[in-house]
Write a structure and sequence with these properties.
With 408 residues, the protein is of the alpha/beta class. It is built from ten helices and 22 strands. α1 packs across α10 and α9 packs parallel to α10.
Length: 408
């Protein structure tokens, strides 16, 4: 067959060749490359690159192409930075919007401090690793170019925990986080947490010198607090609690949020989690932190009370999707920060749009829902001053961002 020419990347990172029969998707290819292979529906299988693009580089991980964790290790840093920036621009354009896009902040390799492994046990083997390109395949990982070295070093410990908690059907999940006190692991296993299993898990945690080991969200053993530093405050998030993927990515997001909030004296931090933004902002402003997860808010509140010199932080447990802060409530604040899940915050954005708050910092892990909510704010009288893209999921198709809005 004649080679296909890759014209662009799709949103998940696969190359796309346009043919008379429609688009054909080819993984691990780049724009401008000539590729051949076997077409199966819309997929090009067993693709071979006949003419590589100048942006093609050698992957750094021995598992690349088999492991499903990374999609784009074959692309240069410059190419990926431009591609992810253009993803943000395209999402805005789809809503009729544009804004100055700042240079993307990219986290270095080996800095992911939060990783979720899957585990299985068979009659003869125990596997801890990542799913492959198909969810049915589990790849035993011996190296990872994105994960913090402490997480990679803990893979034998993870395999041992799988052996203790997995049956011979299904999978277990291990959320592994690097903290200032050591590793924090939350297991979702298949066996009930009875007395004997609790004792075995506590022994494993002691042998590995973990900061904390939890099973299904219940703490089994804790040698040291699993602290994260948010500004001056030390926070112990709940087991498996949300955390930005890298310190470098978190720092870039926080710097953009702080700039967008400006000299605000009072700030509402919506979808606050355990205080990623609320606690650093409290070094100069009074903050109201609102979040549906009561355990996350409890961690935030405890950290605030233990940190001298912070301004007042009030916490409120509230499902902002079902019951957003209303415009009249928001009018008490000089600035609003909101960092919703991937689905965005349509209801909350509508209330912000109808408020008189002068500054808004919108944090997002989904450019499409960010653009939708930005359209709502702009239709309500806000101006989108700039957007800061952030890439803390290196070699993946994911990109995060902060948008700064002002209302006269």
């Amino acid at each position: 067959m004649e080679p296909l020419i890759i014209s662009r990347l799709a949103h998940l990172g696969d190359g796309v060749a346009d043919t008379p029969q429609g688009p054909v998707f080819a993984p691990f290819t780049l724009p401008g490359e000539a590729v051949v292979g076997r077409i199966d529906g819309e997929r090009l299988l067993e693709a071979r690159v006949m003419a590589p693009a100048p942006e093609r580089i050698a992957p750094v991980c021995p598992h690349f192409g088999v492991c499903g964790g990374c999609a784009l290790q074959h692309a240069s840093d410059a190419f990926l930075a431009d591609w992810k920036t253009q993803m943000v621009a395209a999402a805005l354009a789809a809503r009729g919007l544009s804004a100055p896009l700042r240079p993307i902040a990219v986290s270095p390799p080996g800095t992911r401090r939060r990783v979720t492994f899957a585990g299985r046990r068979t009659r003869k083997t125990v596997v801890a690793g990542f799913h492959g390109r198909s969810d049915a395949t589990l790849i035993a990982i011996t190296a990872c170019a994105v994960a913090h070295p402490a997480i990679v070093a803990a893979l034998p410990v993870c395999a041992a925990l799988v052996g203790l908690t997995a049956s011979r059907s299904g999978e277990v999940r291990l959320s592994v986080t690097v903290t200032e006190g050591g590793l924090d692991i939350d297991l979702a296993g298949q066996k009930p947490l009875d007395g004997p299993l609790r004792a075995l898990l506590a022994q494993a945690a002691a042998a590995a010198d973990m900061a904390r080991l939890s099973y299904g969200g219940e703490t089994v053993a804790q040698r040291r607090p699993p602290h994260q530093r948010f500004g001056r405050a030390l926070v112990a998030p709940p087991p498996g609690g949300f955390l930005q993927a890298t310190r470098e990515g978190e720092a870039a997001l926080l710097a953009a949020v702080a700039e967008a909030a400006g000299d605000a004296e009072t700030v509402a931090d919506l979808f606050s989690g355990s205080g990623t933004f609320a606690l650093p902002l409290a070094e100069r402003a009074a903050v109201r932190a609102v979040e549906a997860d009561a355990a996350a808010l409890a961690a935030l509140d405890a950290a605030w009370r233990a940190t001298p010199g912070l301004r007042a932080v009030a916490v409120e447990t509230r499902d902002l999707k079902a019951r957003p802060l209303m415009a009249a409530e928001l009018n008490r604040f000089d600035a609003v920060v909101f960092d919703p899940p991937r689905a965005g915050a349509a209801a909350q954005a509508a209330q912000i749009a109808g408020s008189a708050v002068s500054r808004v910092a919108a944090v997002s892990c989904n450019p499409a829902t960010f653009a939708r909510d930005a359209r709502t704010l702009i239709d309500g009288g806000y101006r989108l001053d700039w957007v800061q893209p952030v890439d803390q999921f290196r070699w993946s198709p994911h990109v995060e961002l902060v948008g700064a809005f002002t209302k006269a």
